[in-house]
Amino acid sequence: MIFLAGLAVMVVMAMALRAGADTGALTPIWELRPGTHVESTPAIDQNGNVYATISGNINYLDATGGKLVCVTSNGVERWAYKIPSDIKSSPALGDDGTIYFGARDRKLYAISDHGKLRWSFPTGNWVDASPAIGTNGVVYCGSWDQKFYALNPDGTKKWEFATGGPIDSSAAIAEDGTIYFGSHDKNFYALNPDGTKKWVFTTGGAVISSPALNCDGVIYFTSVDGKLYALNPDGTKKWEKWTGGIHESSPVLDAEGNLYLGISDVFQAFTPDGTPKWDFGHPILDGSAAVGADGMIYFAANVEGVGVLYTFSPEGQLKFYTPLGGMVSASPALGQNPEIYMGSYGLQGFQVSAGLAKSCWPKFRGGPRQTGRAGQ
After folding, report:
1. What is residue 117's three-state secondary structure?
2. What CATH architecture is 2-351?
3. CB–CB of 99/92 below 8 Å?
4. What is residue 292's DSSP assignment?
5. In terms of CB atoms within 10 Å, which end of the chain has fewer, N or C?
């Protein structure tokens, strides 16, 4: 295993040197090793506390369950809330400090900022999607039971909407309250805040990625039909782009509206009209990118079983490569401070050059609190 890890790092270095990257890596700040795999994207509150869900099965032999952890900005674990289940869902932070996440025990959880259970809501199957939180505190999330739920802040059901397939696409909420998400039934849905269907757009494959919302209301998402779609707010197609990608990487946007997306084994940049800008070939891309206020783009991928966090300039120049030590399927989290957090076989913090970009959707789930809401 040590030999393979060393070989992977050598491969990464060779790729980086060919691309003209600076030698070295991002400066580590702290590392937390909870003993299990972090597959989710951490959320960050206004005080710099980091919240991450831990999957609970580092090698699929650990059946002890997952947990939600709260870590201070200097890497000290404040508390942990354990559940008897695996967790794939990334946490979302409510305005009152409540932390929401889904789990594979078929429940959606609400945990106080002191690490105590406020409520849990049962669904009919896994909850892998990350919750979205409306301005009124309503929590939206889909389940593998083929239903999309709206829950009141006290955990009671407000309404549910049935689709024709499992839902692991994390929803996005527009400024007018419209809720967008995809389903395995090949449809992309727009719902009104009362749960009625506004419109539906049919693709050629399951929609498992999370949509990104631009300031002009345009919605971007991918389908496993191998296409990147841009839809107008009324549900009409603005453009589509054949990518061939079938992974769940979700688009993010920089301050100019350029898109960044992992497409199977290629990380690619597009202009707002869908024109390819630059790309970087790499094996095994699953997560989404994060964009810094200085234009730097961060994303993680795997080489020979080792996760690597990459730093690119806006022009597509590879600046840094940072081996993470274990396989990675999560997305980097970047807040207002110049620090980036990354999950792998543990949770790590790194010093970067700037905080999160002032764009409409600069990272997975939109902003540091991961409400999935436009303007956050």
Report:
1. strand
2. 7 Propeller (2.130)
3. yes
4. B
5. N
Q: Does position 7 have pLDDT exceeding 80, yes or no?
A: no
Residue with token string 């719902």 = 191
- Of 264, 256, 196, 207, the residue nearest 231 (C-alpha): 207
The H-or-E segment that residue 18 falls in is helix 2-18
Measure CA 234 to chain center: 25
Pull the structure tokens for residue 317: 């120049």
Distance CA 185, CA 29 (A): 43
* Contact call for residues 347 and 34 (beta carbons, < 8 A): yes
376 neighbors 95 (Cβ within 8 angstroms):
no
Q: Taking CA 303 as the corner, what is the angle to CA 299 and CA 251, rounded to the nearest 5 degrees?
A: 25
Give backbone dihedrals phi and psi of 179, rounded to 5 degrees, phi first.
-110, 130
Q: How confident is the model at residue 2 (pLDDT cuts 50, 70, 90)?
A: very low
pTM of the model: 0.92
Q: Which residues of 114-132 are buried (b: 16+ CB within 10 A; e: fewer)?
A: ebeebeebebeebbbbbbb
In whole angstroms, give the CA distance from residue 369 to residue 297: 19
Q: 107 with 125: CB under 8 angstroms?
A: no
Question: 14: how many CB neighbours lie within 10 A of its CB?
Answer: 10
Query: Domain spans of the chain?
Result: 2-351
Encode pLDDT of 62-102 as tens digits: 556 899 999 998 899 999 999 988 899 999 999 999 999 99
Q: How many angstroms separate the CA atoms of 204 and 184, rounded? A: 10
